[in-house]
Amino acid sequence: MTAAALGAWLVFEDEAGISMTPPKARTWSRRGITPVIRVRGRSRRRISIAALACYRPGHRSRLIYRARYDDGDRRRRKSFAWTDYRDLLTAAHQQLGGPIVLIWDNLNTHLPVGIRKFTAERDWLHVYQLPPYAPDLNPVEGIWSLLRRGPLANTAFTNPDHLARTLRTGLRAIQYRSDLIDGCLTGTGLTRNTT
């Protein structure tokens, strides 16, 4: 069955890790003067983000995300556990107010027994796996590209809080621009009419 036949939201999920080291991007400068951005030192602190790009014909596209902050404690988990994905999907269902057809990759935290049992017990949730090595089919990859070319590009973060604020501001700006979220879907070769 398709998402349209179910009256469901077509939801793509992906995760990314953002570090204190700024991504490089092109910039403008005066002729003969190469711009230099000094970074005070490399930090191992990262922010892990899981994002959902949500599409439904006749509705505005949505972006839902959760971040997991690394506090520097090596004993704690730095990335998302299956329980974090469970909580994210439950929150998305409440926000979207309808059934969900979820499409995500074969990440090891998407495959444990706990998450498979959770998805099987929910009649509002249908899960499909993307083929291996197919990031070009996931519109959330376009969201990461927008962030890395936009607010994160060429920024020397002073501390982890500065990184978190910049990331949050960039994601909120994308959330309010459904045309950007639609553009990420179009970049995969799909359109809103085919979802």
From TrEMBL:
What would be an example GO MF term here? nucleic acid binding
Question: Which InterPro entries would you find in this protein's record?
Answer: RNaseH_sf, Tc1-like_DDE_dom
Give the Gene3D superfamilies listed for this entry: Ribonuclease H-like superfamily/Ribonuclease H
Pfam families named in the record: DDE_3 (PF13358)
Domain Tc1-like transposase DDE spans what residues?
Answer: 10-159
Query: What is the official name of this protein in its record?
Result: Transposase
Protein's organism: Streptomyces morookaense
